[in-house]
Amino acid sequence: MPSRSTGSLELMKEMNRGLILNAIRQRGPLSRVDIAKQTALHASTVTRIVADLIEEGMVREQGAGENHIGRKPILLDLVADARFFAGLSIEAGSITGVITNLNAEIKARYEKPLDGVTKEDIIRQAKEAVDQLFADIGSQRAKVTSLGVAAHGIVDSVHGHILHAPAFGWRRLELGDALREAYGLPVKVENNCNAMAMGQYWFGNSPGTHNLLALKVGVGVGSGLIVNGSLFWGEDFSAGEIGHTMVAFDGPRCRCGKYGCLESVSSIAALLEQARERMKRGLPTVMMDAVQGDINTLQFSHLCEAAKAGDELALNVFREAGSYLGLAIANAINIINPSRVLVGGDVFDGLPYILPTIKQVVASRSMEIPGRNVRIESVRFGRDAVVMGAVVLVMRDVFYWDEQQLA
Ligand SMILES: [Zn+2]
Fold it and tell me: How far is the CA of 193 from the centre of ligand 1 (A)?
């Protein structure tokens, strides 16, 4: 990985360049005067760096020379296609990849179920995904400057190692090194929930807000935390395991071996289990027709369709999961006081039936001040929220990302 320039003059140049690019990214199109105001840089510094950026093709002038009285300032905007980024999301059952430009517009997409989960299988399938993505964009491959990976498990994101992947049954894979060697690109690896949180923070956070909680609900339940503008990793990179906080004292046994964890009552498996159990008891539901009487074939999509049709059994299952999620979120809100809570993951299509309950429970169970202003919403980018987060892990570097820039 190329290291940051260490000479103080070079470093300052790089930071100023990042400041200017970030100002245009967030508030553009902007005039040179506006950029100087926003960044508190000297006008001559802005002019010089902007000239470089235009020459590199990163920034372009627009809206100049219109026929008004007085001269309209020339506005500057990012050239979205100037740089491409590759992102991978390695989940417990599938691998997804995208190539995007600076505006998160997807240029190529890849998705496949995993066909093996050994360490070698994971590296092989990650490379297959990248190879296919690169093949899809052809000659534009040269624009891809870096690769971000969002992975299941506990990830040492400083070194790019997966430390523990419980769903795959192994420990320690130096995935970042393997991909760096294969493609000669800078690679960053991060836990999938953390990547999702970073993606949500980068695209769509209001300036001036720096604390965010992103929940990923699917086969498992996890979260990523942005605290004071940075990912919060904890001492062992395992922070954010909200799925294994206890919400039901006498609840069912969880995959982790303990009882009453949030995951055991609100994961997709738990939702399906609740629905099946009620169907077995003979409670009325349209889902019985959908599965043609075979309860074992019940899928999450059946549950969503039934809820959409107003099926009480399906709606109750969602409400119950929502109340447990709301409880865990209320507790988290009291601890970290976030401005936003985003919910995503495979549960995405069911969120219209879960979010209202979450909001209700949060309103009644969190403390007044942190509970009053927090916005609880579904994630941006829907089912792609994690892979877009993987892209953001590396996209930030173009802007010399530093959380203090937004303070
Ligand atoms: Zn657990």
Answer: 16
Are 195 and 215 in the same domain?
Answer: no
Cis peptide before 29 (omega within 30 of 0): yes
Longest dimension (CA), the chain: 78
Phi, psi dihedrals of residue 394, rounded to the nearest 5°: -100, -30
- CA 322 to centroid of ligand 1, rounded, Å: 17
CA 194 to centroid of ligand 1, rounded, Å: 19
264 CA from centroid of ligand 1 (Å): 7
Mean pLDDT of 188-213: 89
Check whether residue 298 and residue 234 sit in a common domain. yes
pLDDT tens for each residue of 74-114: 999 999 999 999 999 999 999 999 999 999 999 999 999 99
**Helix, strand, or coil (residue 244):** helix
Number of domains in the chain: 3
Q: Is the pLDDT of residue 69 over 70?
A: no
Place of tokens 């105001």: 37
Cα–Cα distances (Å) from 244 to 156, 220, 250, 265, in that order, read 20, 10, 14, 11
Q: Is residue 218 within 8 Å of 267, Cβ to Cβ?
A: yes
Which domain covers residue 308, as residue numbers?
207-379
- SS3 assignment, position 404: helix
153 CA distance to ligand 1 middle (Å): 14
Do residue 16 and residue 132 come from a single domain? no
- pTM of the predicted structure, to 2 decimals: 0.92
Residues, beta carbon < 5 Å, ion ligand 1: 244, 254, 256, 261
147 plus 88 within the same structural domain: yes
